[in-house]
Amino acid sequence: MKAWTLMLMLVFSSGMAQAQIPINAGLAGGWFEPETSGQGLLIDVVPASTQVFAGWYTFAAPTAKRPGAPEQRWLSAQGEYAGSAAELVLYSASGGVFNTPSAVTQTAVGSATLIFHSCTSATFSYSLPDDGLSGSIALTRIGPDVFCQDIVNGQSMAPTEYNQPPQLSALQTSDQGDQLLLSYALADSESDLVEISVEVLYGNNQSYRIPAPLLSGHVGYPVLTGSTKQLRWDRAGDSGFQQLALQQYRLRLIADDRYAPTVQDIVDLVSEARLIADIQQMEGVRHHAGGERLQQTRAHIRAQMAERGLSPIDQPFRHQGDTGINIIAALVGSDGPDQYYLIDGHYDTILFTPGADDNASGTAGMLEAMRVLSQFNTRRSIRFVGFDKEELGLVGSRYYAANLPGNATVLGMINFEMIGYTCTTQPECQSFPNADVSIYNIRPSFAQSMSDAFVTAGERHVPGLKITSVVDDGDFNFRRSDHAPFWDRGVDALFLTDGANFRTPHYHQASDRLPTLDTRFMANVVKTAVGALADLAGANHQGEAVSEVINR
Predict the structure, then answer these.
(1) Coil, helix or strand for 498?
(2) 3 state DSSP class of 77
(3) Rounded Cα gap, residues 484 and 489, in angstroms
(4) pLDDT tens digit string along 534-552?
Protein backbone atom coordinates (compact mmCIF):
# COMPACT_ATOMS: atom_id res chain seq x y z
CA MET A 1 0.00 0.00 0.00
CA LYS A 2 1.37 3.43 -0.87
CA ALA A 3 2.21 5.67 2.04
CA TRP A 4 -0.32 8.29 1.08
CA THR A 5 -3.15 5.85 1.45
CA LEU A 6 -2.57 6.03 5.18
CA MET A 7 -3.02 9.80 5.62
CA LEU A 8 -5.44 10.83 8.36
CA MET A 9 -7.17 14.05 9.36
CA LEU A 10 -9.65 15.25 11.94
CA VAL A 11 -11.89 18.30 11.83
CA PHE A 12 -12.46 20.39 14.95
CA SER A 13 -15.42 22.60 15.64
CA SER A 14 -14.54 26.02 17.11
CA GLY A 15 -11.11 24.68 18.06
CA MET A 16 -12.48 21.92 20.32
CA ALA A 17 -12.99 18.23 19.54
CA GLN A 18 -16.64 17.25 19.31
CA ALA A 19 -18.17 14.59 21.55
CA GLN A 20 -17.74 11.00 20.38
CA ILE A 21 -19.49 7.68 20.83
CA PRO A 22 -18.16 4.15 20.33
CA ILE A 23 -18.82 2.63 16.93
CA ASN A 24 -21.51 -0.05 17.05
CA ALA A 25 -23.81 -1.99 14.74
CA GLY A 26 -26.63 0.50 15.30
CA LEU A 27 -24.80 3.06 13.15
CA ALA A 28 -25.30 1.06 9.95
CA GLY A 29 -27.43 2.74 7.31
CA GLY A 30 -27.57 5.78 5.07
CA TRP A 31 -25.78 9.03 5.92
CA PHE A 32 -25.65 12.24 3.87
CA GLU A 33 -24.26 15.75 3.85
CA PRO A 34 -27.24 18.13 4.19
CA GLU A 35 -25.42 20.99 2.46
CA THR A 36 -24.74 18.95 -0.67
CA SER A 37 -27.81 17.15 -1.94
CA GLY A 38 -27.08 13.71 -3.32
CA GLN A 39 -23.76 13.16 -1.57
CA GLY A 40 -23.27 10.76 1.32
CA LEU A 41 -22.28 7.29 2.54
CA LEU A 42 -23.99 3.96 2.93
CA ILE A 43 -22.34 2.44 6.02
CA ASP A 44 -22.19 -1.07 7.44
CA VAL A 45 -20.55 -2.02 10.74
CA VAL A 46 -19.31 -5.55 11.54
CA PRO A 47 -18.50 -5.71 15.30
CA ALA A 48 -17.25 -9.31 15.10
CA SER A 49 -14.26 -8.19 13.02
CA THR A 50 -14.26 -4.49 14.08
CA GLN A 51 -14.66 -3.53 10.43
CA VAL A 52 -16.50 -0.69 8.74
CA PHE A 53 -17.57 -0.89 5.11
CA ALA A 54 -18.93 2.11 3.25
CA GLY A 55 -20.03 3.20 -0.20
CA TRP A 56 -19.31 6.86 -0.87
CA TYR A 57 -21.57 8.37 -3.49
CA THR A 58 -20.18 11.71 -4.53
CA PHE A 59 -19.29 13.81 -7.58
CA ALA A 60 -16.15 13.95 -9.69
CA ALA A 61 -13.98 16.99 -9.06
CA PRO A 62 -13.12 19.10 -12.10
CA THR A 63 -9.36 18.74 -11.90
CA ALA A 64 -6.66 18.46 -14.50
CA LYS A 65 -5.90 14.98 -13.26
CA ARG A 66 -9.38 13.79 -14.16
CA PRO A 67 -10.18 15.27 -17.59
CA GLY A 68 -13.54 14.26 -18.94
CA ALA A 69 -14.55 12.53 -15.74
CA PRO A 70 -18.23 11.58 -15.44
CA GLU A 71 -20.33 13.80 -13.25
CA GLN A 72 -21.08 11.21 -10.60
CA ARG A 73 -18.47 9.15 -8.80
CA TRP A 74 -18.76 6.16 -6.47
CA LEU A 75 -15.97 5.05 -4.15
CA SER A 76 -15.91 2.23 -1.63
CA ALA A 77 -14.20 2.29 1.75
CA GLN A 78 -13.07 -0.41 4.13
CA GLY A 79 -11.06 -0.56 7.34
CA GLU A 80 -10.86 -1.27 11.05
CA TYR A 81 -12.39 0.76 13.83
CA ALA A 82 -11.51 1.35 17.45
CA GLY A 83 -13.52 3.43 19.87
CA SER A 84 -15.33 6.18 17.97
CA ALA A 85 -13.18 6.21 14.81
CA ALA A 86 -12.70 4.06 11.73
CA GLU A 87 -9.55 4.20 9.64
CA LEU A 88 -10.49 3.47 6.03
CA VAL A 89 -8.80 2.87 2.68
CA LEU A 90 -10.68 4.37 -0.27
CA TYR A 91 -11.01 2.25 -3.41
CA SER A 92 -12.08 3.04 -6.96
CA ALA A 93 -13.46 0.33 -9.24
CA SER A 94 -12.84 0.25 -12.98
CA GLY A 95 -13.38 -2.10 -15.89
CA GLY A 96 -16.98 -2.99 -15.12
CA VAL A 97 -19.90 -2.85 -17.56
CA PHE A 98 -23.43 -1.96 -16.47
CA ASN A 99 -25.61 -5.02 -15.85
CA THR A 100 -23.02 -7.30 -17.43
CA PRO A 101 -20.72 -9.81 -15.69
CA SER A 102 -17.16 -8.61 -16.18
CA ALA A 103 -13.83 -8.37 -14.38
CA VAL A 104 -13.51 -5.33 -12.14
CA THR A 105 -10.28 -3.78 -10.90
CA GLN A 106 -10.18 -2.29 -7.39
CA THR A 107 -7.51 0.38 -6.91
CA ALA A 108 -6.63 2.09 -3.65
CA VAL A 109 -6.89 5.81 -4.31
CA GLY A 110 -6.82 7.43 -0.89
CA SER A 111 -7.66 7.21 2.78
CA ALA A 112 -10.34 8.44 5.14
CA THR A 113 -11.27 8.65 8.79
CA LEU A 114 -14.87 8.30 9.93
CA ILE A 115 -15.65 9.57 13.43
CA PHE A 116 -19.09 9.31 15.05
CA HIS A 117 -20.10 12.13 17.39
CA SER A 118 -23.55 10.74 18.16
CA CYS A 119 -25.98 8.20 16.76
CA THR A 120 -27.06 10.80 14.18
CA SER A 121 -23.93 12.83 13.39
CA ALA A 122 -20.44 12.03 12.12
CA THR A 123 -17.41 13.55 10.39
CA PHE A 124 -15.88 11.98 7.29
CA SER A 125 -12.33 13.23 6.58
CA TYR A 126 -10.69 12.16 3.32
CA SER A 127 -7.49 12.40 1.27
CA LEU A 128 -7.32 11.65 -2.50
CA PRO A 129 -3.67 12.42 -3.34
CA ASP A 130 -3.82 11.63 -7.09
CA ASP A 131 -6.60 14.18 -7.43
CA GLY A 132 -4.90 16.62 -5.06
CA LEU A 133 -8.02 16.62 -2.89
CA SER A 134 -8.55 16.51 0.85
CA GLY A 135 -11.17 17.79 3.24
CA SER A 136 -14.05 16.76 5.45
CA ILE A 137 -17.78 16.24 5.29
CA ALA A 138 -20.26 16.65 8.14
CA LEU A 139 -22.67 13.72 7.92
CA THR A 140 -26.20 13.34 9.25
CA ARG A 141 -28.14 10.11 9.51
CA ILE A 142 -30.88 9.88 6.88
CA GLY A 143 -33.36 7.84 8.87
CA PRO A 144 -34.19 7.72 12.58
CA ASP A 145 -31.95 5.91 15.06
CA VAL A 146 -33.40 2.49 15.82
CA PHE A 147 -31.04 0.94 18.40
CA CYS A 148 -27.66 2.75 18.33
CA GLN A 149 -28.43 4.78 21.45
CA ASP A 150 -29.60 1.69 23.29
CA ILE A 151 -26.26 0.03 22.56
CA VAL A 152 -24.32 3.10 23.69
CA ASN A 153 -26.33 3.36 26.90
CA GLY A 154 -25.80 -0.30 27.62
CA GLN A 155 -22.03 -0.26 27.16
CA SER A 156 -19.83 0.09 30.20
CA MET A 157 -17.93 3.32 29.74
CA ALA A 158 -16.27 3.23 33.16
CA PRO A 159 -12.61 4.21 32.70
CA THR A 160 -9.65 2.85 34.56
CA GLU A 161 -8.54 4.91 37.54
CA TYR A 162 -6.80 7.26 35.14
CA ASN A 163 -6.64 7.31 31.37
CA GLN A 164 -3.56 5.32 30.34
CA PRO A 165 -0.93 6.81 28.02
CA PRO A 166 -0.43 5.30 24.56
CA GLN A 167 2.38 2.81 24.04
CA LEU A 168 4.72 2.54 21.05
CA SER A 169 6.74 -0.54 20.18
CA ALA A 170 8.40 -2.45 17.33
CA LEU A 171 9.83 0.71 15.78
CA GLN A 172 11.79 -0.11 12.60
CA THR A 173 13.31 2.15 9.93
CA SER A 174 13.94 1.43 6.27
CA ASP A 175 16.21 3.68 4.20
CA GLN A 176 14.66 4.29 0.79
CA GLY A 177 17.02 6.92 -0.54
CA ASP A 178 15.40 10.32 -0.44
CA GLN A 179 12.75 8.96 1.92
CA LEU A 180 12.80 7.01 5.15
CA LEU A 181 10.03 4.56 6.02
CA LEU A 182 9.10 3.97 9.66
CA SER A 183 6.96 1.07 10.83
CA TYR A 184 5.67 0.71 14.36
CA ALA A 185 2.96 -0.71 16.62
CA LEU A 186 0.62 1.54 18.60
CA ALA A 187 -1.47 0.48 21.59
CA ASP A 188 -3.76 2.38 23.94
CA SER A 189 -5.76 0.84 26.78
CA GLU A 190 -8.80 3.00 26.08
CA SER A 191 -8.43 2.89 22.24
CA ASP A 192 -8.03 6.65 22.24
CA LEU A 193 -7.26 8.47 19.02
CA VAL A 194 -3.59 9.37 19.04
CA GLU A 195 -1.41 12.10 17.54
CA ILE A 196 1.90 10.88 16.10
CA SER A 197 4.91 13.15 15.60
CA VAL A 198 8.60 12.50 14.88
CA GLU A 199 11.82 14.07 16.14
CA VAL A 200 15.43 13.70 15.10
CA LEU A 201 17.75 13.10 18.08
CA TYR A 202 21.42 14.06 17.84
CA GLY A 203 24.36 15.37 19.82
CA ASN A 204 23.93 15.88 23.56
CA ASN A 205 20.18 15.44 23.98
CA GLN A 206 19.42 17.81 21.11
CA SER A 207 16.33 17.32 18.98
CA TYR A 208 14.76 18.56 15.76
CA ARG A 209 11.00 18.27 15.19
CA ILE A 210 10.25 17.09 11.65
CA PRO A 211 7.67 19.42 10.05
CA ALA A 212 4.28 17.74 9.59
CA PRO A 213 4.03 18.45 5.80
CA LEU A 214 7.14 16.32 5.25
CA LEU A 215 5.54 13.28 6.90
CA SER A 216 2.83 11.11 5.41
CA GLY A 217 1.07 7.96 6.47
CA HIS A 218 0.08 7.07 10.00
CA VAL A 219 1.12 10.42 11.39
CA GLY A 220 -0.60 13.52 12.74
CA TYR A 221 -4.04 13.24 14.30
CA PRO A 222 -5.97 10.98 14.50
CA VAL A 223 -4.13 7.68 14.30
CA LEU A 224 -5.87 4.52 15.46
CA THR A 225 -4.18 1.79 17.42
CA GLY A 226 -2.77 -1.16 15.51
CA SER A 227 0.28 -3.38 15.05
CA THR A 228 1.15 -2.48 11.44
CA LYS A 229 1.50 1.29 11.28
CA GLN A 230 3.73 3.05 8.78
CA LEU A 231 4.80 6.57 7.97
CA ARG A 232 7.14 8.11 5.45
CA TRP A 233 9.56 11.02 5.90
CA ASP A 234 10.63 13.13 2.92
CA ARG A 235 14.17 13.37 4.17
CA ALA A 236 15.63 14.92 1.02
CA GLY A 237 13.02 17.67 1.04
CA ASP A 238 13.56 18.53 4.71
CA SER A 239 15.79 21.60 4.47
CA GLY A 240 15.95 22.04 8.24
CA PHE A 241 17.28 18.53 8.66
CA GLN A 242 19.72 18.91 5.77
CA GLN A 243 21.20 22.03 7.35
CA LEU A 244 22.14 19.99 10.45
CA ALA A 245 24.51 17.91 8.27
CA LEU A 246 24.34 14.98 10.69
CA GLN A 247 26.45 11.88 10.19
CA GLN A 248 24.51 9.90 12.78
CA TYR A 249 21.13 10.37 14.41
CA ARG A 250 18.15 8.56 15.82
CA LEU A 251 14.45 9.11 15.38
CA ARG A 252 12.03 9.49 18.27
CA LEU A 253 8.39 8.66 17.62
CA ILE A 254 5.97 10.39 19.98
CA ALA A 255 2.38 9.27 20.62
CA ASP A 256 0.04 11.73 22.34
CA ASP A 257 -3.61 10.95 23.09
CA ARG A 258 -4.23 14.63 23.96
CA TYR A 259 -5.21 13.70 27.48
CA ALA A 260 -2.91 16.05 29.37
CA PRO A 261 -2.86 15.52 33.15
CA THR A 262 -1.94 18.34 35.47
CA VAL A 263 0.13 17.75 38.59
CA GLN A 264 -3.05 18.39 40.57
CA ASP A 265 -4.79 15.60 38.62
CA ILE A 266 -1.98 13.24 39.58
CA VAL A 267 -1.90 14.31 43.22
CA ASP A 268 -5.65 13.82 43.56
CA LEU A 269 -5.29 10.14 42.65
CA VAL A 270 -3.68 9.35 46.01
CA SER A 271 -6.13 7.23 48.00
CA GLU A 272 -6.40 7.34 51.77
CA ALA A 273 -8.43 4.13 51.62
CA ARG A 274 -5.61 2.27 49.86
CA LEU A 275 -3.09 3.51 52.41
CA ILE A 276 -5.28 2.14 55.19
CA ALA A 277 -5.65 -1.18 53.36
CA ASP A 278 -1.87 -1.46 52.99
CA ILE A 279 -1.29 -0.87 56.70
CA GLN A 280 -3.93 -3.46 57.55
CA GLN A 281 -2.08 -5.97 55.35
CA MET A 282 1.30 -5.23 56.94
CA GLU A 283 0.55 -4.41 60.58
CA GLY A 284 2.17 -6.98 62.84
CA VAL A 285 5.67 -7.87 64.03
CA ARG A 286 7.95 -7.90 60.99
CA HIS A 287 11.21 -8.89 62.58
CA HIS A 288 13.80 -11.43 61.43
CA ALA A 289 13.62 -13.30 64.70
CA GLY A 290 10.52 -15.06 63.49
CA GLY A 291 6.85 -14.88 62.58
CA GLU A 292 4.99 -15.02 59.29
CA ARG A 293 4.18 -11.33 58.99
CA LEU A 294 7.59 -10.45 57.54
CA GLN A 295 7.16 -12.91 54.68
CA GLN A 296 3.55 -11.82 54.16
CA THR A 297 4.63 -8.19 53.95
CA ARG A 298 7.26 -8.98 51.35
CA ALA A 299 4.67 -10.83 49.32
CA HIS A 300 2.28 -7.87 49.60
CA ILE A 301 4.91 -5.41 48.38
CA ARG A 302 5.80 -7.61 45.41
CA ALA A 303 2.14 -8.16 44.54
CA GLN A 304 1.34 -4.45 44.58
CA MET A 305 4.27 -3.68 42.30
CA ALA A 306 3.38 -6.45 39.88
CA GLU A 307 -0.27 -5.42 39.83
CA ARG A 308 0.76 -2.03 38.45
CA GLY A 309 2.76 -3.58 35.63
CA LEU A 310 6.18 -3.19 37.25
CA SER A 311 8.60 -6.06 37.75
CA PRO A 312 9.67 -6.35 41.41
CA ILE A 313 13.27 -7.37 41.94
CA ASP A 314 14.66 -8.80 45.15
CA GLN A 315 18.07 -7.52 46.28
CA PRO A 316 19.20 -10.03 48.92
CA PHE A 317 22.03 -9.37 51.33
CA ARG A 318 23.57 -11.25 54.23
CA HIS A 319 23.66 -9.82 57.73
CA GLN A 320 24.38 -11.58 61.03
CA GLY A 321 23.79 -14.99 59.54
CA ASP A 322 20.44 -14.01 58.04
CA THR A 323 19.28 -12.82 54.64
CA GLY A 324 17.62 -9.45 54.27
CA ILE A 325 15.78 -8.47 51.11
CA ASN A 326 15.37 -5.04 49.54
CA ILE A 327 12.43 -5.08 47.13
CA ILE A 328 12.80 -2.79 44.11
CA ALA A 329 10.60 -1.78 41.18
CA ALA A 330 11.52 0.69 38.44
CA LEU A 331 9.37 3.02 36.35
CA VAL A 332 11.73 3.62 33.43
CA GLY A 333 11.55 7.09 31.91
CA SER A 334 12.24 8.16 28.35
CA ASP A 335 15.74 9.36 29.32
CA GLY A 336 16.71 5.82 30.26
CA PRO A 337 17.06 3.78 33.47
CA ASP A 338 20.44 4.94 34.77
CA GLN A 339 19.44 8.34 36.18
CA TYR A 340 16.52 8.10 38.55
CA TYR A 341 14.67 9.41 41.57
CA LEU A 342 14.15 7.05 44.49
CA ILE A 343 11.24 6.85 46.92
CA ASP A 344 11.34 4.37 49.76
CA GLY A 345 10.04 3.11 53.09
CA HIS A 346 11.51 0.37 55.26
CA TYR A 347 9.16 -2.49 56.04
CA ASP A 348 10.80 -4.26 58.99
CA THR A 349 10.08 -3.66 62.70
CA ILE A 350 11.74 -4.32 66.03
CA LEU A 351 10.49 -7.18 68.17
CA PHE A 352 7.12 -6.90 69.92
CA THR A 353 5.71 -3.97 67.94
CA PRO A 354 3.13 -4.22 65.12
CA GLY A 355 4.74 -1.15 63.53
CA ALA A 356 1.74 0.64 62.03
CA ASP A 357 3.48 4.00 62.07
CA ASP A 358 7.03 2.57 62.18
CA ASN A 359 7.06 1.90 59.37
CA ALA A 360 4.03 0.38 57.68
CA SER A 361 2.96 4.00 57.13
CA GLY A 362 6.14 4.73 55.14
CA THR A 363 5.97 1.50 53.15
CA ALA A 364 2.31 2.15 52.38
CA GLY A 365 3.28 5.65 51.25
CA MET A 366 5.89 4.23 48.90
CA LEU A 367 3.40 1.74 47.47
CA GLU A 368 0.72 4.38 46.96
CA ALA A 369 3.20 6.68 45.22
CA MET A 370 4.09 3.72 43.00
CA ARG A 371 0.43 2.99 42.22
CA VAL A 372 -0.22 6.58 41.19
CA LEU A 373 2.96 7.44 39.31
CA SER A 374 3.14 4.14 37.42
CA GLN A 375 0.00 5.18 35.56
CA PHE A 376 2.03 7.79 33.69
CA ASN A 377 5.07 7.97 31.50
CA THR A 378 7.97 10.02 32.80
CA ARG A 379 11.07 11.67 31.40
CA ARG A 380 13.23 10.63 34.35
CA SER A 381 13.06 7.15 35.84
CA ILE A 382 11.72 6.49 39.34
CA ARG A 383 12.63 3.59 41.61
CA PHE A 384 10.34 2.40 44.38
CA VAL A 385 12.13 0.54 47.17
CA GLY A 386 11.12 -1.32 50.29
CA PHE A 387 14.25 -1.44 52.46
CA ASP A 388 14.84 -4.25 54.90
CA LYS A 389 16.67 -4.30 58.26
CA GLU A 390 16.49 -0.57 58.86
CA GLU A 391 15.87 -1.27 62.52
CA LEU A 392 19.15 -3.18 62.74
CA GLY A 393 21.28 -0.23 61.61
CA LEU A 394 20.08 0.86 58.14
CA VAL A 395 21.52 -2.39 56.81
CA GLY A 396 19.39 -2.65 53.66
CA SER A 397 19.82 0.95 52.56
CA ARG A 398 23.56 0.84 53.26
CA TYR A 399 23.85 -2.25 51.08
CA TYR A 400 21.84 -0.64 48.28
CA ALA A 401 23.86 2.59 48.34
CA ALA A 402 27.19 0.77 48.50
CA ASN A 403 26.31 -1.38 45.49
CA LEU A 404 25.11 1.27 43.07
CA PRO A 405 26.44 0.52 39.57
CA GLY A 406 29.02 2.93 38.23
CA ASN A 407 26.62 4.22 35.56
CA ALA A 408 23.78 4.85 38.04
CA THR A 409 22.92 8.30 39.36
CA VAL A 410 20.36 8.85 42.09
CA LEU A 411 19.02 12.30 41.19
CA GLY A 412 17.12 12.65 44.45
CA MET A 413 15.41 10.62 47.15
CA ILE A 414 12.28 10.77 49.29
CA ASN A 415 12.49 8.61 52.39
CA PHE A 416 9.21 7.94 54.22
CA GLU A 417 10.02 7.27 57.88
CA MET A 418 6.90 7.23 60.07
CA ILE A 419 4.41 9.56 58.37
CA GLY A 420 1.14 8.75 60.13
CA TYR A 421 1.00 10.22 63.65
CA THR A 422 -0.15 13.72 64.61
CA CYS A 423 -0.54 15.17 68.07
CA THR A 424 -3.72 17.20 68.40
CA THR A 425 -5.72 16.83 71.62
CA GLN A 426 -4.50 13.41 72.80
CA PRO A 427 -3.27 13.75 76.41
CA GLU A 428 -0.54 11.15 75.92
CA CYS A 429 1.46 13.24 73.42
CA GLN A 430 1.14 16.76 74.78
CA SER A 431 4.46 16.69 76.65
CA PHE A 432 6.47 15.52 73.65
CA PRO A 433 8.89 18.03 72.03
CA ASN A 434 7.22 17.92 68.59
CA ALA A 435 3.61 17.77 69.74
CA ASP A 436 2.08 19.18 66.56
CA VAL A 437 0.51 18.22 63.22
CA SER A 438 3.32 18.97 60.78
CA ILE A 439 5.47 16.73 58.61
CA TYR A 440 9.19 17.27 59.18
CA ASN A 441 10.96 17.90 55.89
CA ILE A 442 14.62 17.35 56.73
CA ARG A 443 17.20 18.02 54.05
CA PRO A 444 21.00 17.70 53.91
CA SER A 445 23.16 20.78 54.41
CA PHE A 446 24.65 20.45 50.92
CA ALA A 447 21.47 20.41 48.81
CA GLN A 448 17.91 21.68 48.85
CA SER A 449 16.30 20.89 45.48
CA MET A 450 14.25 17.99 46.84
CA SER A 451 13.15 19.99 49.87
CA ASP A 452 12.16 22.95 47.69
CA ALA A 453 10.20 20.66 45.37
CA PHE A 454 8.35 19.11 48.31
CA VAL A 455 7.47 22.50 49.82
CA THR A 456 6.34 23.87 46.44
CA ALA A 457 4.15 20.82 45.80
CA GLY A 458 2.55 21.24 49.23
CA GLU A 459 1.85 24.93 48.72
CA ARG A 460 0.38 24.42 45.27
CA HIS A 461 -1.47 21.15 45.58
CA VAL A 462 -1.93 20.16 49.26
CA PRO A 463 -2.41 23.43 51.15
CA GLY A 464 -3.87 21.59 54.14
CA LEU A 465 -0.52 19.99 54.98
CA LYS A 466 1.69 21.82 57.48
CA ILE A 467 5.36 21.40 56.56
CA THR A 468 8.22 22.13 58.94
CA SER A 469 11.48 22.38 56.99
CA VAL A 470 14.73 21.56 58.76
CA VAL A 471 18.37 21.56 57.62
CA ASP A 472 20.74 18.87 58.91
CA ASP A 473 23.10 20.43 61.45
CA GLY A 474 24.95 17.27 62.38
CA ASP A 475 22.47 16.09 65.02
CA PHE A 476 22.57 12.28 65.13
CA ASN A 477 18.77 12.14 65.19
CA PHE A 478 18.70 13.47 61.62
CA ARG A 479 20.55 10.35 60.46
CA ARG A 480 18.33 7.68 61.99
CA SER A 481 16.78 6.40 58.77
CA ASP A 482 17.49 5.10 55.29
CA HIS A 483 18.34 8.46 53.71
CA ALA A 484 21.61 8.68 55.70
CA PRO A 485 23.70 6.32 53.49
CA PHE A 486 22.68 8.43 50.51
CA TRP A 487 23.64 11.67 52.23
CA ASP A 488 27.07 10.09 52.68
CA ARG A 489 27.28 9.71 48.90
CA GLY A 490 26.20 13.25 48.13
CA VAL A 491 22.61 12.40 47.17
CA ASP A 492 19.95 15.05 47.75
CA ALA A 493 17.84 12.78 49.97
CA LEU A 494 14.80 14.08 51.81
CA PHE A 495 13.90 12.69 55.23
CA LEU A 496 10.14 12.91 55.84
CA THR A 497 8.96 12.02 59.33
CA ASP A 498 6.23 12.78 61.84
CA GLY A 499 8.88 13.10 64.55
CA ALA A 500 9.03 9.49 65.75
CA ASN A 501 9.85 9.32 69.47
CA PHE A 502 9.83 13.12 69.67
CA ARG A 503 6.08 13.09 69.00
CA THR A 504 4.41 9.74 69.42
CA PRO A 505 4.19 7.75 72.67
CA HIS A 506 3.63 4.61 70.58
CA TYR A 507 7.14 4.57 69.12
CA HIS A 508 8.52 1.02 69.34
CA GLN A 509 5.59 -0.02 71.52
CA ALA A 510 2.95 -2.72 71.22
CA SER A 511 0.43 0.12 70.94
CA ASP A 512 1.76 1.25 67.52
CA ARG A 513 -1.41 0.32 65.71
CA LEU A 514 -3.58 1.72 62.91
CA PRO A 515 -6.27 3.33 65.14
CA THR A 516 -3.62 5.68 66.58
CA LEU A 517 -2.78 7.12 63.15
CA ASP A 518 -4.07 10.19 61.34
CA THR A 519 -4.58 8.66 57.91
CA ARG A 520 -5.76 11.89 56.30
CA PHE A 521 -2.48 13.51 57.35
CA MET A 522 -0.61 10.52 55.96
CA ALA A 523 -2.46 10.80 52.64
CA ASN A 524 -1.55 14.49 52.43
CA VAL A 525 2.13 13.67 52.98
CA VAL A 526 2.00 11.11 50.16
CA LYS A 527 0.13 13.53 47.90
CA THR A 528 2.82 16.15 48.39
CA ALA A 529 5.61 13.67 47.67
CA VAL A 530 3.79 12.45 44.56
CA GLY A 531 3.34 16.04 43.37
CA ALA A 532 7.04 16.75 43.85
CA LEU A 533 8.11 13.61 41.97
CA ALA A 534 5.56 14.12 39.18
CA ASP A 535 7.11 17.51 38.54
CA LEU A 536 10.75 16.48 38.97
CA ALA A 537 10.48 13.32 36.87
CA GLY A 538 8.37 14.97 34.17
CA ALA A 539 5.22 12.83 34.38
CA ASN A 540 3.36 13.00 31.08
CA HIS A 541 0.81 11.25 28.92
CA GLN A 542 2.95 10.57 25.88
CA GLY A 543 4.33 7.31 24.63
CA GLU A 544 7.75 7.26 22.98
CA ALA A 545 9.94 4.93 20.97
CA VAL A 546 13.48 5.62 19.78
CA SER A 547 15.07 4.02 16.74
CA GLU A 548 18.51 2.51 16.43
CA VAL A 549 21.28 4.83 15.24
CA ILE A 550 20.86 5.82 11.59
CA ASN A 551 24.04 6.52 9.62
CA ARG A 552 23.94 9.12 6.92
Answers:
(1) coil
(2) strand
(3) 9
(4) 999 999 989 999 999 999 8
